[in-house]
Amino acid sequence: MxxxxxxxxxxxxxGRVVKGIKFKGIQDAGDPVELARRYNDDGADELTFLDIGAxxxxxxxxxxxxxxxAAEVFIxxxxxxxxxxxxxxxxxxxxxxxxxxxxxAALRNPRLLAEMARAYGSxxxxxxxxxxxxxxxxxCAVWHAFSHxxxxxxxxDAVEWxxxxxxxxxxxILLNSIDADGTGAGYDLELTRTILDAVGVPVIAxxxxxxxxxxxxxxxxxxxxxxxxxxxxxxxxxxLLHFGKTTIREIKQYAESKGVVVRW
Length: 264
Prior knowledge:
Layout: E1 5-13, E2 16-21, E3 24-30, H1 32-41, E4 47-51, H2 56-70, E5 77-80, H3 86-95, E6 99-102, H4 104-108, H5 111-120, E7 125-133, E8 143-147, E9 152-157, H6 158-168, E10 172-177, H7 189-198, E11 203-206, H8 212-219, E12 234-237, H9 239-242, H10 248-257
Parallel strand pairs: 1-4, 1-12, 4-5, 5-6, 6-7, 7-10, 10-11, 11-12
Antiparallel strand pairs: 1-2, 2-3, 7-8, 8-9
Helix pairs in contact: 1-2, 8-10
């Protein structure tokens, strides 16, 4: 079994880390370089930076942050938000990113995934899916892929989109649950398992971490003696870390105590 990863997520706007609830109610969470240094020292397996400013200026600011972080830490860096072309990917990679994530641009032009994979390899291409449940309670679960920071419903089935993206060249899925984002109510385990069943690439679960138990659950394999399991390859964590409610070391120790194989 491959060891599971713990990945801090830093949503960056105008050079600061911010966090909201269900993609709204944004509040300041600190300096990105300072936080990245702390998470690196505490044992993070990777770092994910997302530009939520959606402008040329904010993207340039984020790339400067990535340059500063890349000069100080030696774990993989993923950059997303505002990546609209292979040229944007090149800029991110030149700034120090090891891989990039794309969401809206890939929905607009799915062939972009193939272009990026040809240029840098599938291992460097992460498809970010902002998924929201659209089925009625009691009905078969259906999620749609949303674009523009979770504001626009594309009408596209998120599971089918994941399958298509992997066929085109995405080497990893960053799965963001809009319903769970920032709520602290736990990851969407059903969504995570459904996407995992549909694709043959690693899936990073994102959105909803509120307790150590919830993080362990989303990583637990199906054979675990627990009705709540997700079997994700990695867990993205933001608010719990940014606001000092726990540390990466504590997360790993707890997950390991529950039967999750983690990296040390």
